What we know:
alpha+beta, 4-stranded antiparallel sheet, 14% strand, 12 helices
Amino acid sequence: MSHAVSTALETEERRALRSAVGALGRHHAGDTPHAYDRQSLWADAAKLGYLGVSLPEEYGGGGGGIAELSIVLEELGAAGCPLLMMIVSPAICGTVIARFGTDEQKQRWLPGLADGSLTLAFGITEPDAGSNSHRITTTARRDDTGGWVLTGRKVFVSGVDIADATLIVGRTEDAKTGRLKPCLFLVPRDAPGFRRSPIDMELRAQEKQFELTLDDVRLPADALVGDEDAGLLQLFAGLNPERIMTAAFGIGMGRYALAKAVEYAKTRQVWKEPIGAHQAIAHPLAQAHIELELARLMMQKAAALYDAGDDLGAGEAANMAKYAAGEACVKAVDQSVHTLGGNGLTREYGLASLITASRVARIAPVSREMILNFVSHQSLGLPKSY
């Protein structure tokens, strides 16, 4: 399927990256989504420099940006083997540490994130906070040694069992105002008091979801990432790439499903010609393709703004890209399953499981309703409703 419309806007290096990653994905992909060996693909992607493409060169990365990293995830998804932890480990955690970490933290984590030998998870969502970061109740207090003590709970945290540490969003008390402010802490997987339990998900994915309990977890002073007073600036330095990468995840999945449907529509013959010759089949697939292309253009805009250092502009564009990609992904998957009819619900064709998976791009890491709240208030200047 041609993608000349939006890839024509990319540099030669990015087009080459897209082609090479696509080849890697096709090499690893099984017959159906999720049939690939995640560990083997992760290792190969790391060895080829794809995991660290957005990280600084001085720490073993490729020196690129979120634009390049989003290409990697999109193309792996389009091949049927997305790496969900790319959203978390290099995009969120790697970006935050590269921008705000101490020299020691950068030396400790960035080379390993780039070569795949280290993985980080990210914990922000709480049972009673949802999308409201101001209701986060995980708190951190200083102990008498100058270190930190963390207490709280997190839910829907991906890959904690395979991560060496989890970047936890907690809150500390501002000494001047007494108010709680967000701060980021690196919590090792085996830290005493740090417990995890898997969440039983209907979603078929290689990475498991966990609920975390932090029961007076004691951390050294250098577990704090960045400036204690930077607050939301550091948090959104990770959340904007998260939204951009989630858009890439959704676009890749939508492309995968659409390619399966187009192939089927070209060969499935019920009457005199293939079913793809009928407009009732062809037009919805064409619409799905258009919407995926439009979502990708917004994702590229968001990545360009973020990589240029425009955090404010990137915040708006990243939310829009995530919204557009989520809607386009769901529509593409739904239409693809419908195109195959009964075959779309069989394991043989591997599309039915994407009906659930495609909803991820709508729901996480922020719901489409919260994005509409953001755009109506921040972009249109309408009264705040939340």
